[in-house]
Amino acid sequence: METVYDWVTVGLFAGLVVLFLQRSSEEKPRDSLLEYLVAGLGLAIANYFGNNDQDVIAILLIAGTVAFVLFYLKPFAPGPDAEQ
User: Does some domain include residue 68?
Assistant: First the structure.
């Protein structure tokens, strides 16, 4: 954990893991495991580029991964058990 990219990507990955664990305990899964794989790979590749002084590519990949998670995984959407 030497660069800011290490901290940012590991923090985002931890959030992704928490979301996966929360969603995997639901009766009916609403996400595909492949969506989590894409997000995890995006963070890993962004970390690689960031650690190799490719800052613009790393920042774009992090932003793209966050956008992917927000659009496809919808972490702030109410769950199936939410009262309406």
Answer: yes
